[in-house]
Design a protein that fits this description.
By secondary structure, the chain is mainly beta. Helices cover 0% and strands 35% of the residues. Strand 5 and strand 6 (46-51) form a beta hairpin.
Length: 102
């Protein structure tokens, strides 16, 4: 199952398949190592937090949780389709939109 993730403007920026996060081009950019909504890069750096099931934001006051290890290669997720526009949602306090490097 694919979960589409958007920024605060409603723009689709990435998607989740199981515990892995992919950019719109199918490049693996992160994962959820702790079974909650905290997303880290494949190097173990904080990437963002999934909020309201369809938004991903970077919280500036996020505490360091330690190195999560490396999950191994998950395989290719396939084409996720296009989810369209999700609509605007204000950023929570202390949050900003994540920037995905191309």
């Amino acid at each position: 199952m694919v979960d589409y993730l958007f920024n605060s403007s409603g723009e689709w920026i990435c998607f989740k398949v199981n515990k892995f996060i992919w950019d719109k081009n199918g490049k693996l950019i992160g994962w959820l190592p702790w079974g909650d909504n905290e997303v880290v890069t494949m190097k173990g750096d904080y990437l963002g937090t999934i909020v309201d099931k369809d938004r991903i934001y970077y919280f500036t006051n996020h505490p360091y949780r330690g190195y999560p290890g490396y999950p191994g290669y998950p395989g290719y997720p396939g084409y996720p389709g296009y989810p369209g526009f999700a609509g605007y949602k204000p950023l929570p306090s202390g949050a900003k939109d994540i920037v995905i490097k191309k």
